[in-house]
Design goal:
The protein is of the alpha+beta class and 407 residues long. It has two domains: 156 residues, FAD/NAD(P)-binding domain (3-Layer(bba) Sandwich), CATH 3.50.50.60; 155 residues, D-Amino Acid Oxidase, Chain A, domain 2, CATH 3.30.9. Helix content is 25%, strand content 28%. The strands form four sheets. Strands 5-6-4-14-15-16-13-17-21 form a nine-stranded mixed sheet. Strands 1, 2, 8, 9, 10, 11, 19 and 20 form an eight-stranded mixed sheet that branches. α1 crosses α12. It is globular, with a radius of gyration of 22 Å. The chain starts with a strand and ends in a 9-residue tail after the last strand. It binds flavin-adenine dinucleotide (FAD). The site of flavin-adenine dinucleotide has 42 residues, from α1, β2 and α2.
């Protein structure tokens, strides 16, 4: 169509998958825009614990698989980016601690070493809250990033080609043999875009977009999670607890907008919590914490605020709804649809997308300056049900407000 902006690729969705793919494609010379309907990373990326997994959980059983090999490359990919274009990203921790409720058996130690490019080593800096846990406690070379900061760094680098549309209904997509035609409503303006390829990276938004385009929306699966948050006078702790030979509890630490520490608590409790009430999930989380850290007493936990947040994960469909091990990428004519499965795997998905595209043919085009750019999403611990949460973002529901500070 005359007057349309002509692109090599149009990306829909500005979570980690969309932003990392945008960065990869621009570095390879593609004319590409990214359209976001709410805040960048609203949904999974902002809720994520930020661990750049190196394959530990696949390796614990002692078996190296294609998945464990692929994910084992990710820490180095991220390390290179964190020393280069992402050098200003906030790091929650340079490593994760690993300990077990029953002591790390020899098998787990061997397995942990087997699948990782860099070996776990005995931890040198063990926080007081881990007094009394069965030794050894290991340092695993998995960096923990602040997801909001990653979103911000990538968005800042590419703000000239990122655009916010007026919600999901502000984007109308039509795929055809030559590519895609998009009509975008944005703050009173209408833009028409023609792109040779459409790249859907909208997390849970991929399902409805695919349905509206007449594509099979059952190829996305949703796995429920209820993430637990604890807020208060907490030490910095980033690590995994093993029970038997399986990861059981994962704790990461961030701070809210007022500088109060927040633990994100995931693992089995978050998976089981998806079908439990917030209150029972919190009770289970407290029981798991005291089991994982004998030095922590129930009275210590009662001095904290606990909250939960529904945090579903959206992934490519698998048999029986099990967790995929690698990213999913669907190639259907001129439309590509992807789910990274993990924050850590976003570079791998971006590479797969770049390899599936024809060579670039269009000249760079920039989003007009007068159109709105989306902001990175706010962590759910920074929102209250009454605060002005941005669309698509969920506030945590807290059981008490001892540590809440006025905005
Ligand atoms: C609680 C939790 C903890 C996790 N912890 C980790 C971890 O520690 N390490 C790890 O590697 N992985 C982790 N993950 C997984 C990881 O967060 C996700 O795999 C990853 O963030 C998915 O990124 P995404 O870009 O595909 O989706 P999202 O982050 O959900 O982003 C999708 C984007 O698309 C936008 N969008 C939606 N609909 C539309 C539309 N119609 N038009 C335009 N834009 C749209 C959304 O607003 C959003 O910005 C965790 C996930 C959860 C839920």
């Amino acid at each position: 169509m005359d007057g349309d902006t002509q692109l090599d690729a149009l990306i829909v969705g500005g979570g980690i998958a969309g932003l990392w793919t945008l960065d990869t494609l621009r570095k390879r010379g593609y004319a590409v825009w990214l359209i976001e309907s709410a805040s960048l990373g609203a949904g999974q990326t902002i809720q994520s614990q930020g661990i750049i997994h190196g394959g530990l959980k696949y390796a614990l059983g002692g078996n190296a698989t294609a998945a464990s090999n692929a994910i084992a490359d990710m820490p180095q990919r991220w390390a290179d980016a964190l020393q280069g274009p992402l050098r200003d990203v906030a790091i929650r921790s340079r490593n994760c601690l690993l300990w077990s409720t029953g002591g790390l058996g020899r098998l787990a130690m061997v397995g942990a070493k087997l699948g990782l490019r860099a070996r776990p080593t005995p931890a040198t800096n063990i926080p007081n809250c881990l007094a009394g846990v069965p030794r050894p406690v290991l340092d695993v070379p998995e960096v923990v990033v602040e997801p909001a900061s990653v979103l911000n760094a990538l968005a800042t680098a590419h703000k000239d080609v990122i655009l916010r549309c007026d919600g999901p209904s502000g984007l109308c997509l039509k795929a055809h043999a030559q590519g895609v035609s998009a009509k975008v409503q944005s703050a009173g303006s209408t833009l028409c875009i023609s792109a040779d390829r459409l790249v859907l990276l909208a997390g849970g938004g991929n399902g409805p977009i695919r349905a509206a385009m007449g594509l099979d929306d059952t190829l996305m699966q949703t796995r429920g999670l209820r993430m637990v948050l604890a807020r208060g006078d907490l030490p910095v702790l980033n690590g995994h607890v093993i029970k038997g030979s399986k990861p059981w509890l994962t704790i990461t630490t961030t701070t809210d907008a007022h500088g109060v520490r927040v633990w994100q608590i995931g693992g089995e409790v978050a998976e089981q919590g998806a079908t439990m009430t917030p209150e029972s999930t919190i009770d289970m989380a407290k029981a798991h914490l005291t089991q994982a850290m004998p030095a922590v007493r129930a009275s210590d936990l009662n001095a904290l605020d606990f909250g939960t947040i529904e945090a579903p994960r959206y992934e490519g469909q698998t048999t029986g709804g099990r967790r995929p091990e690698l990213p999913t990428l669907l190639l259907e004519g001129t439309t590509l649809t992807g789910w990274p499965t993990k924050l850590a795997l976003a570079p791998l998905l971006a590479d797969q997308i770049a390899e599936a595209l024809p060579p670039p043919t269009h000249a760079t085009a920039l989003v007009p300056n007068n159109l709105p750019r989306p902001s990175p999403a706010e962590g759910p611990w920074n929102q209250s049900p009454t605060s002005k949460a941005r669309p698509c973002e969920t506030a945590a529901t807290w059981n008490s407000d001892h540590w809440a500070r006025a905005d």
